[in-house]
Amino acid sequence: xxxxxxxxxxxxxxxxxxxxxxxxxxxxxxxxxxxxxxxxxxxxxxxxxxxxxxxxxxxxxxxxxxxxxxxxxxxxxxxxxx
Length: 82
Fold this sequence. Notes:
Pfam family, one: Fer4_7
CATH topology: Alpha-Beta Plaits
Shape: globular
InterPro entries: 4Fe4S_Fe-S-bd, 4Fe4S_Fe_S_CS, PSI_iron-sulfur_center, YfhL-like
GO cellular component, one term: cytoplasm
Organism: Oleiphilus messinensis
CATH architecture: 2-Layer Sandwich
GO molecular function: 4 iron, 4 sulfur cluster binding; metal ion binding
């Protein structure tokens, strides 16, 4: 499943540099996660790095983008070319 950022986001900017896939970017009001690039850090780390650094815990799983670990790993391979 891709992750998403909720309206609780305080725009602190700590999540964006942590994303190895560059899936996080500033939106009109809060940061946003591109589900096409989000692998929940599968292939890079054991846990999603954005969730680890978020001070307000506003990065849950996105129920609209349900993916298995295998699908996330496939996306990782496509994004990295590895």
